[in-house]
Design a protein that fits this description.
This protein is α+β, with helices and mostly antiparallel strands. The chain contains 5 helices and 6 strands. It has one domain.
C-alpha cells in the first residue's frame, strides 16, 4: 500500500467516525478518539487495534490525528541522494524525536518516537471536523 492509498483510506475512516459524532462537542469528539475507546468501539480504524497495540508508547494516546500534519510524503520520491537512495517522506518541523529509516534504496521518516500529534493539547489547538483540512499540506501534490 502506498502512502497516498493509506492516507486516503485513513481520511475515509476518520470521516465515518466523525459522522457518528456529528452532534458531539469538540471535547467529546477528542475524548472519543482516546486509544482505549477506539480499540473498543472502532476496531477497524487501525490494524494495530486487533492486537491492542499502540503506535506510540505513551499514556493517553489519542488517535484523532492518526497521521501527523507535519508528515510529508511523495510516493514518487522527493529526491535521490548521492548514494542513490530515494527520500519518500520527511518531517516538516524536523522533530527532535523523529529519525530516518534507511533501507537498501530508500529513506522514510520514522515518527515512532514522536508523540506531538497524539497529545490532547495539540489536538485541541489543531482541531477541525474535517480531517483533510488539518492534513491539507501532508501530500506533496
Amino acid at each position: 500500500m502506498t502512502y497516498e492509498e493509506w492516507f486516503l483510506k485513513q481520511g475515509e475512516l476518520h470521516a465515518n467516525v466523525m459522522k457518528k459524532l456529528e452532534g458531539n462537542t469538540k471535547q467529546e469528539i477528542i475524548e472519543y478518539f482516546r486509544f482505549e475507546n477506539m480499540v473498543k468501539n472502532e476496531p477497524d480504524f487501525c490494524p494495530l487495534y486487533k492486537d491492542n497495540k499502540k503506535c506510540h508508547d505513551m499514556e493517553d494516546l489519542n488517535c484523532y490525528l492518526c497521521a501527523c500534519p507535519h508528515f510529508r510524503f511523495d510516493d514518487n520520491g522527493f529526491k535521490k541522494n548521492p548514494d542513490g537512495k530515494v527520500l519518500y517522506s520527511v518531517c516538516s518541523i524536523n522533530s527532535k524525536k523523529g529519525s530516518e529509516y534507511v533501507g537498501d534504496n530508500y529513506i522514510h521518516q520514522n515518527c515512532s518516537d514522536c508523540i506531538v500529534p497524539h497529545k490532547r493539547k495539540y489536538i485541541e489547538k489543531n482541531f477541525h471536523r474535517n480531517w483533510f483540512e488539518i492534513m491539507k499540506d501532508v501530500r506533496s501534490k
